[in-house]
């Protein structure tokens, strides 16, 4: 895979798309078996919805393959090539990571999305989806293999773990001699389990406790727009704001209109004592008291914690203490406050005057994403093709030795 | 530390250098106690040599501080800032990693070198040197703290683990809530232990089984120069060649003069059967037979394994099978062979017509290095200041929300 040309990889993505189109009946049969079993187990409607390979879902998967096909190939790019006094030239070349393991829930669309990104970056991939989707994933893997073979690439470059045994996850996570990096996509309990068990390095997403801080020098219109969007554009996403911080000096101006807006959208508010005073003075009721646990909560729901802080320093302290190093925003017109927030908030994405919801591979222009990383090493924030590659040093010489 | 300006960090490095100069008597007293204990334990001369803070060693450490001072500050650099259709600008900012743990042998000079690099990159650092150097390291840490305080930076940004208890290493390696990355510098057994035990992500160097492949299209003069330098310029370094691979078609031309040169320098040769035939036909004797274990050996000594391979493919297969993904070179005048070797050899440093000995932070122009990484994630190859930093995303908006 590492030596595959861009043309060969793009051709493979196209033949996989065609194979999926051809195999549609077989794929839907396999998926129907998974869905029937899920219904027997009385799994909930949302679960079965994510599991189902509808015509629309298949079309989206096929469109996704063609979109990854259209992305620039990151592999082989040479950067920073410089001449050294010894006579050699030193630079860096972008190369595949090798074998990537993906662990994910019972969502067959991830099988195709993840495989496409890994292949485009020249990697082999081992997929372990939720056991409830095993028949679907095995059928998808057969279509992928036939597409790879038709394009002259190794048919086994994409493999699905062919067992529903949950012990396979732990095994996969310790196979350092076969797997270069693990990308777990799933709930917090899976990630926490892997953080204890895994020996293979991970690109992982733990949780998203995201903040907007409305600074003393905020523009009111921008504050309302950003805070509204960050909380209410979607509730269940990891980059949704979970705690709103407001500078004390501007709280009486910002909080009442903002909280009326939230209450109009049925967002439940959990507030600190100072916020309660400000809001009740403005005639706003139906407020719950925020506890210490609320500052650490990832609600993924129409609930918002609100805290008044003294100033920028207190806001940065709160975020670095209670946040999850995911995505945090400041609303301010103050040059130095913006600069300090950008530099001192230790999160994967830090925004000025923009909604936290922008922290996303597509919005950032990566073209696609395999996930969002809370880690500081290697890939941080939305992870696209580049995060699935490595930079090695190359040296071009003319027979030089070291003195 | 993360918010320290370049001036403050440079000032701290200068005041630490001054503090070391002032404290020289105290430092040498503490070190003398360590050396006396090492002599009582009958530790060998090389060990005590590395442990000793001679006047020359102290001068080198102080010069090292001033050299790190002169390096460009990587922190705060913004790259790839691009405007997106949504109206936001997205870019990446280079920021410190946070708290770095360094585990190393009883070499007090590493205490200063590692602290200097970590501080320059805006990190705090926890140092755990070999227990035999504890008094020296604690004395050095006091000088560092007084230098930091004099420069107005946190005096405890550099800390030495104040116990000789070996259990401290295992403890340090699992404190994910306090330490962002671990840089172990030591023997293979320490690294292997940490690979089993550590929960903190590591930037690590396991071993250096480095190759030179003399291609069928090699220039003889360059081949002799590169192979001589790669093996004999220094024997004990991780980027020294340990196995020489030669294309069958050129073996009779290259191997005899090269092996005469090695034998003149008392390098012991362990050869494959085909190499033996070629060499004995040229009248070269005193050859040992190479075994499978030799292909995996890191001799760090005047010993060289030699193998004749059929062609470039066989050479790449050998390196990717037996090597340690450290540093590998090809000698060739063939354009496509050079390109394929660069791309397909999966090592941290890949060289064309240059000695493996160049794989070094100073030779690569990094200014200094904290170590050489065999890992593929994050930092690969020689690790300088950049490897001690992280890239976060920054977004500059004007009140935008996501649609």
From TrEMBL, chains A, B:
PANTHER family: DELTA-1-PYRROLINE-5-CARBOXYLATE SYNTHASE, GLUTAMATE SEMIALDEHYDE DEHYDROGENASE
Primary enzyme class: oxidoreductase
Documented EC number(s): 1.2.1.41
Pfam families for this protein: Aldedh
Keywords for the protein's UniProt record, in alphabetical order: Amino-acid biosynthesis, NADP, Oxidoreductase, Proline biosynthesis
Pathway: Amino-acid biosynthesis; L-proline biosynthesis; L-glutamate 5-semialdehyde from L-glutamate: step 2/2
Domain Aldehyde dehydrogenase: 4-257, 295-359
Reaction catalyzed: L-glutamate 5-semialdehyde + phosphate + NADP(+) = L-glutamyl 5-phosphate + NADPH + H(+)
Signal peptide (from-to): none
UniProt entry tagged with the keyword Oxidoreductase: yes
Protein name: glutamate-5-semialdehyde dehydrogenase
Any coiled-coil regions, as ranges: none
Organism: Linnemannia gamsii
């Amino acid at each position: 895979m590492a030596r595959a040309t861009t043309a060969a990889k793009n051709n493979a993505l196209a033949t996989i798309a065609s194979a999926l189109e051809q195999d549609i009946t077989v794929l839907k049969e396999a998926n129907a078996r998974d869905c029937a079993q899920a219904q027997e187990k009385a799994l909930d409607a949302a679960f079965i919805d994510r599991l189902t390979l509808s015509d629309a879902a298949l079309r989206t998967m096929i469109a996704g393959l063609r979109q990854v096909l259209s992305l620039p190939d990151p592999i082989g790019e040479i950067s920073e090539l410089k001449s050294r006094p010894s006579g050699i030239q030193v630079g860096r070349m972008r190369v595949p990571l090798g074998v990537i393991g993906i662990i994910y829930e019972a969502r067959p669309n991830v099988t195709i999305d993840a495989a496409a990104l890994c292949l485009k970056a020249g990697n082999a991939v081992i997929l372990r989806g939720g056991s409830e989707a095993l028949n679907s994933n095995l059928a998808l893997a057969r279509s992928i293999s036939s597409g790879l073979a038709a394009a002259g690439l190794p048919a086994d470059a994409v493999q699905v773990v062919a067992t529903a045994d949950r012990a396979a996850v732990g095994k996969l996570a310790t196979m350092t001699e076969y797997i270069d990096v693990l990308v777990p996509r799933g709930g917090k309990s899976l990630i926490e389990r892997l953080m204890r068990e895994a020996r293979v390095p991970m690109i992982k997403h733990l949780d998203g406790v995201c903040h907007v801080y409305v600074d003393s020098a905020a523009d009111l219109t921008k504050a309302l727009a950003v805070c509204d969007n960050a909380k209410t554009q979607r509730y269940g996403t990891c980059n949704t704001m979970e705690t709103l911080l407001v500078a004390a000096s501007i709280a009486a101006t910002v909080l009442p209109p903002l909280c009326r807006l939230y209450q109009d959208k049925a967002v439940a508010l959990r507030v600190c004592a100072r916020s309660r005073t400000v809001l009740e003075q403005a005639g706003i009721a139906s407020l719950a008291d925020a506890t210490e646990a609320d500052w650490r909560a990832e609600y993924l729901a129409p609930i918002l914690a609100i805290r008044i802080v003294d100033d920028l320093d207190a806001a940065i302290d709160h975020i670095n203490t209670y946040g999850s190093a995911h995505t945090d925003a400041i609303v301010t017109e103050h040059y130095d406050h913006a600069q300090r927030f950008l530099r001192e908030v230790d999160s994967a994405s830090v925004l000025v005057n923009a909604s936290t919801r922008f922290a996303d591979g597509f919005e950032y222009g990566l073209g696609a994403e395999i996930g969002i990383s809370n880690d500081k090493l290697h890939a941080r924030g939305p992870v696209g093709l580049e995060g699935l590659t490595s930079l090695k040093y190359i040296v071009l010489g003319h027979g030089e030795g070291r003195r």
